[in-house]
């Protein structure tokens, strides 16, 4: 893979040309200023402007300024904001992964803090994604020239691909978390059952002392496990809800994302389709113009003919009656 | 390193060093170069948000300073003019100019002169000047392609342009591979000799500094041969997947346009057949038609299973799984539809044109002896109503190439029959082909009937029996590759240019066919490379032929030759 950089050669020549051009223009300006008064003396009024014209066009600084003043269109800011939002979401997702693994570790505490952290993180990420998606839709709404709108469409597409990948990632993480959580829950249930079984054995021993009802110990255990399962239930619901939301985002985005390996993904196809659509548009426009013109002409002609006819009738009537 | 990946690396390097939003500007040639190795979504990842052609970008004057313009053009004078006008009144914030070939000093000066506002950031030469359709197969789309058949005196300027384009392209290939080759050519072909000599001049004299790479023990070999040495291969019907699609429908830069053969839903009008992006195609591109049918059936079964598992969604988990798998599912769906459509359409064409029997006779003509039987078979097919005009013409051509000297009388009978049978037959086309590529012009043993060794080998093969009647033909290229592997390519027939001789066996061989390659030859090269003989072959051509394209070149050349003789 050989390459050759010709920039140095190019620069050298450009500078050479510039240095040639600069004295030339200054001398031209000098000569203009020296001849200026003469011209003014000869013809005071009309040539006044023309003698100054070369000066103003040769001045490089003003034209450069005029060029650099142009600001990018406002959608560029939008797209940048979306990009930063995506970046933030990515950071948050990595945080979330850490929190997930921490929450799944067996611990002595009840792990409420972990849960809360996971909840808030998930919510934040989902809202970030939602917001960027809404903003993404706005990106294509503004009007502009065909090239500009093409650029916008492509920016939108690439951001959509990013967003989609991100939300896929998030969902995969959530579903694995969910699965692990459920597994753990089942594990707990199994343990509880065994304990209950043991407990009931105990109970059979206790039968001699008291016939009815659970023991105090059993009641507290039951309550505790109930509470535990309610909490887990709530967590699972939470996750399921966010999965739903993500699915919605996915559906909205899939319209924008290009499938790889299809004809839509070909560079030449895209250029050709743009040029053909432009041509088609031109053709339609010409056709419309033609029909419009034709319609107006025909209307005009028919109305004139009708008018003529009416006038003729009036004339004949006038001849006959008077 | 293979041609496709080095072209890809070039594009990667162009795009990765320039940060920010970019617009990529190509010309009608480089668009093919980029399209076969890069995809739109990959461009988007590199923040290229607009792709335009160089002539349409100069139509509009709306300024877009937030974009950086990345030009990737061939260094032609039209492109330089477009650029000059653009630089005089720049629309974009920065200009990065990449050229696909060697820039002349005057061209740099023109550009530097017009860059008054100093918007150009860099000027580079990145030698991706070939369309890498497969890993071992590249092509240049040379305009007015028929010209190689005519002697140089007929139209000197067009021939010069043809040669220049080919030599530049070959130079780019070797620059991309970072090698300087020794060059051999086919002795009997003037155009091959000219191209070989001009390439040698460029690589060893004019740009010898550029081609001065670290010395390898053995230089690679560039062998320039002429299409007319083997006119049979582009005239045969093909039965392996890629070659067959090109023969019956037509592939252009790995794209297949289905609009010409029927009505299809919008997203299936044009499909992509790329071995890089489509694993099914990669696995089956060299398989024959029967096996393709089986493999597609297997793919459809697989797909049905997937879609069935997608249908019964009952739990939340199923739903989540479905959403996870959906993009994969959709991709698979598109792929299955594509291949099924192609194969269905092709088998329709095969039935319509009775290609089974036509192709059998063609293969008989190309591979086996038996003149009497061949004459009878060709006559029968000429009488058959359902055989198309194109196939009739090809049959007679094949017969003429094979039995030109053996039976002039029977050949005349066939000519007359052909003229009476097909209304569109242009008289003299077969004779023109014989004049171009007849026995006297060819030096190789195309049909394997000139020396005793080959005759014996053919007989042995006849006794053994062939695996598949429709794919028994081996292109001449196969023999050439075999003799290169054995080190027995004769210096008399394929002389070296200048005093750069080959010592030892080359490791890389690039065979360039002036007048175009076929996918059958591409398959032959790929299979040869898979054999792992220690030599890697790369095939290149001035275009990719199917029989229609080859006949069109012939017709065009005949027309020009005739008009030049009358004038």
Residue share in helix of chain A: over 70%
Q: How many strands, what sense, and barrel or not for the largest sheet of chain A? A: none
SS elements, strand count of chain B: 14
Structural class of chain A: mainly alpha
CATH superfamily of the largest domain in chain B: Sec1/Munc18 (SM) protein, domain 2
Strand content of chain B: 5-15%
Oligomer: heterodimer
Give the end-to-end Cα distance of chain A, rounded to a whole number of Å. Answer: 102 Å
Largest sheet of chain B: 6 strands, mixed
Rg of chain B, alpha carbons? 26 Å
Mean pLDDT of chain A: 73
The total of beta strands of chain A comes to 1
Identify low-pLDDT runs of chain B.
none
**What is the CATH T-level topology of the domain at 75-207 and 235-259 in chain A?**
Methane Monooxygenase Hydroxylase, Chain G, domain 1
Helix and strand pattern of chain A:
EHHHHHHHH
* Main structural class of chain B: alpha/beta
Give the N-to-C terminal Cα separation of chain B: 50 Å
CATH top level class name of the domain at 75-207 and 235-259 in chain A: Mainly Alpha
Q: How many independent structural domains of chain B?
A: 4
What this model shows, in words?
- The complex is a heterodimer of chains A (322) and B (567).
- Chain A is mainly α.
- Among the domains of chain A are: 7-60; 75-207 and 235-259, Methane Monooxygenase Hydroxylase, Chain G, domain 1 (Up-down Bundle), CATH 1.20.58.70.
- Chain A is 84% helix and 1% strand.
- Chain A is built from 8 helices and 1 strand; from the N terminus they run βαααααααα.
- In chain A, helix 4 (74-104) runs parallel beside helix 6 (146-206) and helix 6 runs antiparallel to helix 7 (216-254).
- The model of chain A is unreliable at 29-69 and 190-208 (pLDDT under 50).
- Chain B is an alpha/beta fold and 567 residues long.
- Chain B folds into 4 domains: 3-129, Sec1/Munc18 (SM) protein, domain 1 (Rossmann fold); 133-230 and 475-561, Sec1/Munc18 (SM) protein, domain 2 (Rossmann fold); 241-352, Sec1/Munc18 (SM) protein, domain 3a (Syntaxin Binding Protein 1, Chain A, domain 2, Alpha-Beta Complex); 355-470, Serine Threonine Protein Phosphatase 5, Tetratricopeptide repeat, CATH 1.25.40.
- Chain B is built from 21 helices and 14 strands.
- Chain B has a 6-stranded mixed β-sheet, sandwiched between helices.
- In chain B, strand 3, helix 5 and strand 4 (92-99) form a beta-alpha-beta unit.
- Chain B is globular.
């Amino acid at each position: 893979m050989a390459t050759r950089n010709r920039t140095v050669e190019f620069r050298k020549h450009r500078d050479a040309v510039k240095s040639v051009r600069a004295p030339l223009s200054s001398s031209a300006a000098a000569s203009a200023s020296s001849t200026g008064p003469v011209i003014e003396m000869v013809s005071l009024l009309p040539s006044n402007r023309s003698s100054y014209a070369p000066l103003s066009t040769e001045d490089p600084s003003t034209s450069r300024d005029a060029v650099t003043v142009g600001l990018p269109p406002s959608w560029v800011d939008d797209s940048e904001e979306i990009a930063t939002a995506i970046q933030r979401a990515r950071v948050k997702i990595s945080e979330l992964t850490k929190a997930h693994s921490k929450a799944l570790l067996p611990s002595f505490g009840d792990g409420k803090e972990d849960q809360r952290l996971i909840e808030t993180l998930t919510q934040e990420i989902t809202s970030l994604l939602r917001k960027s998606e809404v903003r993404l839709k706005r990106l294509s709404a503004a009007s502009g020239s065909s090239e500009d709108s093409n650029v916008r469409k492509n920016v939108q597409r690439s951001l959509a691909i990013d967003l989609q990948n991100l939300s896929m990632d998030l969902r995969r993480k959530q579903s694995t978390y969910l699965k692990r959580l459920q597994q753990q829950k089942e594990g707990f249930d199994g343990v509880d059952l065994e304990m209950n079984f043991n407990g009931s054995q105990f109970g059979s021993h206790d039968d001699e002392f008291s016939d009815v009802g659970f023991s105090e110990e059993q009641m507290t255990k039951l309550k505790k496990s109930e509470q535990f399962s309610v909490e887990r239930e709530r967590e699972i619901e939470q996750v399921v809800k966010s999965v739903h939301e993500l699915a919605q985002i996915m559906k909205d985005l899939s319209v924008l994302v290009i499938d790889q390996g299809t004809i839509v993904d070909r560079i030449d196809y895209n250029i050709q389709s743009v040029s053909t659509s432009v041509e088609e548009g031109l053709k339609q426009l010409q056709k419309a113009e033609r029909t419009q013109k034709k319609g107006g002409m025909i209307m005009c002609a028919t109305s004139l003919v009708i008018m003529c006819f009416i006038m003729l009738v009036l004339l004949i009537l006038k001849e006959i009656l008077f | 390193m293979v041609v496709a990946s080095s072209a890809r690396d070039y594009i990667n390097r162009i795009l990765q060093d320039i940060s920010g939003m970019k617009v990529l500007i190509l010309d009608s040639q480089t668009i093919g170069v980029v399209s076969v190795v890069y995809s739109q979504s990959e461009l988007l990842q590199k923040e290229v948000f607009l792709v335009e052609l160089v002539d349409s970008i100069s139509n509009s004057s709306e300024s877009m300073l937030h974009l950086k313009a990345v030009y990737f053009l061939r260094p032609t004078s039209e492109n330089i003019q477009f650029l000059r006008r653009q630089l005089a009144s720049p629309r974009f914030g920065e200009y990065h100019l990449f050229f696909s070939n060697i820039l002349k000093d005057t061209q740099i000066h023109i550009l530097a002169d017009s860059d008054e506002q100093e918007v150009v950031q860099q000027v580079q030469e990145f030698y991706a000047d070939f369309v890498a359709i497969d890993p071992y197969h590249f092509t240049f789309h040379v305009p007015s392609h028929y010209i190689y058949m005519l002697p140089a005196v007929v139209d000197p300027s067009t021939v010069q342009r043809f040669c220049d384009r080919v030599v530049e392209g070959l130079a780019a290939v070797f620059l991309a591979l970072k090698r300087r080759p020794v060059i051999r050519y086919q002795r009997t072909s003037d155009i091959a000799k000219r191209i070989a000599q001009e390439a040698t001049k460029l690589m060893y004299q004019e740009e010898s500094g550029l081609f001065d790479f670290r010395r390898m023990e053995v230089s690679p070999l560039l062998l320039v041969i002429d299409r007319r040495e083997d006119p049979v291969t582009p005239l045969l019907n093909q039965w392996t997947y890629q070659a067959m699609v090109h023969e019956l429908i037509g592939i252009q830069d790995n794209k297949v346009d289905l609009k010409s053969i029927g009505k299809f839903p919008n997203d299936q009008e044009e499909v992509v057949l790329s071995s890089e992006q489509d694993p099914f195609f990669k696995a089956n591109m060299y398989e024959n038609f029967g096996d393709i049918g089986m493999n597609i059936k297997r793919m459809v079964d697989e797909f049905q299973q997937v879609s069935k598992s997608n249908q019964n969604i009952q739990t939340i988990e199923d739903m989540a799984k479905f959403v996870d798998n959906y993009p994969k599912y959709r991709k698979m769906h598109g792929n299955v539809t594509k291949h099924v459509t192609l194969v269905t359409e092709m088998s329709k064409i095969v039935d319509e044109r009775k290609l089974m029997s036509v192709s059998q006779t063609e293969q008989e003509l190309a591979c086996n002896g038996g003149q009497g039987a061949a004459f009878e078979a060709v006559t029968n097919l000429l009488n058959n109503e359902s055989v198309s005009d194109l196939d009739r013409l090809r049959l007679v051509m094949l017969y003429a190439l094979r039995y030109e000297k053996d039976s002039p009388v029977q050949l005349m009978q066939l000519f007359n029959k052909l003229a009476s049978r097909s209304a569109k037959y242009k008289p003299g086309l077969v004779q023109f082909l014989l004049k171009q590529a007849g026995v006297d012009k060819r030096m190789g043993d195309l049909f394997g009937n000139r020396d005793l060794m080959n005759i014996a080998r053919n007989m042995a093969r006849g006794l053994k029996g062939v695996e598949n009647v429709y794919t028994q033909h081996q292109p001449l290229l196969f023999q050439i590759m075999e003799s290169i592997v054995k080190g027995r390519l004769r210096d008399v027939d394929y002389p070296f240019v200048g005093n750069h001789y080959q010592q030892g066996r080359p490791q890389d061989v690039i065979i360039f066919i002036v007048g175009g390659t076929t996918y059958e030859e591409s398959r032959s090269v790929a299979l040869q490379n898979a054999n792992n003989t220690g030599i890697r072959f790369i095939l290149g051509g001035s275009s990719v032929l199917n029989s229609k394209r080859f006949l069109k070149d012939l017709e065009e050349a005949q027309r020009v030759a005739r008009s030049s003789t009358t004038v």
